[in-house]
Each structure stands twice: as C-alpha cells, then as structure tokens.
Write a structure and sequence with these properties.
alpha/beta; globular
Amino acid sequence: MPPTNPPEYERTLQQYRDYPMPVRSIEDDRKKLFHRVGDNPSAICTLIFGGRDIFSGECRILVAGGGTGDSTLFFAKYLRDIGGNGRVVHLDQSAAANEIIATRLSRFDLNNVDIQERSLLDLDPQEDGLFDYINCNGVLHHLPSPVEGLHRLSSVTRPDGGLGIWTYAKYGRTGMYHVQRMILDLVGSRPVDADAIALTRDIFSELPSSSLGRYDGSGVLS
C-alpha cells in the first residue's frame, strides 16, 4: 500500500484546493504581471547557465506546484514575446487553481502551456521527459518529505539544466510568522473557512502600516 500522507499535509493540500493562491483578478493581469521569486530570465541564464540563453530555443520549463499561475503566465508570455519555441508544463494538485491559470492564459492568448493536475511527487523521467529549467516556488516545505520532492525534481532535470527553488525561511518571513502566531492566539485552532478568513481580514485591517507582516515583500497587503 502507498504511504499515508500526514494529516497536516492533507489539511494544507485541502486549504489550497479550497482557496487557490495567489488571488489574482482580471484587473491585476491588466495592470502588470506579478514576478515571483526566480522569474528573471537574465539572472537564470547568467547564474545557472553561464550566460547561455536557454529560452530562445525549444526549451522545456516545468512550474511545479504552480498554483494560480504567476510564474507559469510569466514564462509562457516571455517565451512568446522573444519568439521562442519552448513550452511550459504547469503542475498543480488543485483543480480550482488549474482552472484559474487556464483562464489567465486565455486572456493573453497563450497556447504554449500544458496544465496537469498532479503532484510533483508523481514526476517520472521515463514518462515526463527532462526539463531545461524547473521553477518550484513555495512548495517543497509543504510536502511530507521535502527531500523526496527535491529528488523528484532533480530526476526530471536535464544534466545541464537547472532549478529555481524558493522555500520558507526563518528570517525572511519573520513579520508574517509573528502575525500568524498572533491570529492563532486570538482565534484559536479552527478550520480555514469563510468566517475564519473574514475574521483574519478584520484583524489585518486594524494593524498599523508599520506592523511586521502587514505587507509582503512586493508591498502588497498580505
């Protein structure tokens, strides 16, 4: 029998299925695409590939745990804008999130993305082939075994390819951790539902702009 996932992982997975992240509106996409950590082709080519431009050819990009698709949309549009023939695979376990990225892609008339409702733990080089670049933003730390997740990603990376990985950190999210602890102290342990979200928003609205965790790294209200 396959191993049973820990309850905490199942709760986190269900939360992302019920509340796809990040929240993006039509107006958001019209204003400006959101660049997540690692969405920087120049830096990728310089730091990982020694200055070689991997995006102008027929590259394969995997966005593992892509959520509602900020990175997927960014790379798909970038490939089209530079006239590249590459494709992006968007991988996420949330059907709701995948529906959102499909809608966002249609707004930009992008057809160079394959959307798959799967876990990155199911990746197999024999079935999925190899990728030139893999983006995995804010995912590995949620897995029952982050190391196993990293091994799966590595297994589908070309020998001369690269990975861009972002995980939670002790200091980089310090303010957010403080606010989360405060909210838990105030509301207690309860399911993530509409009432809990409304209460959290009320708490946020009362915080002064100088509070740790009041804004995320992009200057947007957390």
